[in-house]
Design a protein that fits this description.
It is globular and about 55 Å long. By secondary structure, it is mainly alpha-helical. The protein folds into 2 domains: 6-76 and 141-196, Helicase, Ruva Protein, domain 3 (Orthogonal Bundle), CATH 1.10.8; 84-140 and 201-271, Lysozyme (Orthogonal Bundle). The chain contains 14 helices and 2 strands; from the N terminus they run ααααααααβααβαααα. It has helices at 9-18, 37-50, 55-62, 69-76, 85-92, 94-107, 109-119, 123-134, 145-154, 159-175, 197-203, 218-231, 247-253, 257-271, and strands at 143-144, 183-184. The two termini are 29 Å apart. The chain has a two-stranded antiparallel ribbon with strand order 1-2. One of its GO terms (molecular function) is peptidoglycan lytic transglycosylase activity. Keywords: Signal. Pfam families: SLT_2 (PF13406). It comes from Pseudohoeflea suaedae.
């Protein structure tokens, strides 16, 4: 499922064009099936090279790329967000997340205290996101990330938005933050709280003090999530239920109303508020 403000992809594309940074998707021919994918990859690589992406990065990133059929299938069949709040909470295992979240809050007290000190975000909503996104890191995805993002960049439905994500992913590969064979979720989400590549670059933060960012690390993933929420308007000490100060920051995390409300409810239960 596509997360973290992804509903604004049209605005992003317009901003890129206004800045004179046209998305190569407008030049390379998009498609709605696997037939033109390999040709699109060739066009994209040529355009990426013209924009300064190194041959080494392009060669390593696309060496094993393939059309991600599962990604397209899931992208066309996102039914979870059509559930009622009660159905969504049950499907996501809210009670189990609350129970496990309380345990993790106690056993990682120093980490959550440091994050709240630095970003103003308490443990509850972070644990709610962590639990719902990856089962507290138990499953971060098994899809070839470059293939997933490249497939969505090629796909005509949201080509401009995911082409930007593909450039961000190449940047992460160039930096050494992810490997060309990195595996994540079906839409290219990365790590324990499932950031898209552009969000890793924009909001990635080190939670363990070593200055690098590895979202497979719980400390980095949670610090990055807190940084994302702060950048989307989180105010220290404010409430985060619907209608309260910080609910808007939670809305920035995911466009689906049931997901937003689930974060608020589960977070409050974990925080005991």
């Amino acid at each position: 499922m596509v997360r973290h403000g992804r509903r604004r992809f049209g605005i992003l594309a317009a901003a890129l064009l206004a800045a004179g940074i046209s998305s190569p998707a407008f030049a390379a021919q998009c498609g709605n099936n696997a037939g033109g994918f390999n040709n699109w990859i060739g066009q994209f690589k040529s355009e990426a090279a013209q924009r300064g992406v190194s041959p080494r990065t392009l060669d390593s990133a696309f060496r094993n790329v393939r059309y991600a059929t599962k990604t397209i299938s899931l992208d066309r069949n996102q039914h979870t967000f059509k559930l009622s709040l009660e159905q969504f909470m049950a499907k996501r295992g809210a009670n189990a997340i609350i129970s496990r979240g309380k345990q993790l809050k106690r056993s990682n007290a120093a980490l959550f205290q440091a994050i709240e000190k630095n970003y103003g975000v308490p443990a509850g909503p972070l644990l709610a996101i962590w639990g719902m996104e990856s089962g507290f890191g138990s499953f971060m995805g098994n899809q070839h990330t470059v293939s997933a993002v490249a497939t969505l960049a090629y796909d005509c439905r949201r080509s401009a938005y995911f082409t930007d994500q593909l450039y961000a992913l190449l940047d992460l590969i160039e930096r050494g933050w992810v490997s060309p064979e990195f595996k994540g979720a079906a839409h290219g989400e990365i790590g324990q709280t499932q950031f898209l590549p552009r969000n890793v670059i924009n909001y990635g933060a080190s939670g363990d003090g070593n200055r690098s960012v590895d979202l497979r690390s719980k400390a980095d993933a949670l610090a990055s999530t807190a940084n994302f929420l702060r950048a989307h308007g989180w105010q220290r000490g404010g409430g985060y239920q619907p209608g309260q100060t910080n609910f808007r920051a939670i809305q920035g995390w995911n466009a689906a109303g049931v997901y937003q409300k689930a974060i608020a409810i589960i977070g409050a239960e974990i925080d005991g508020s």
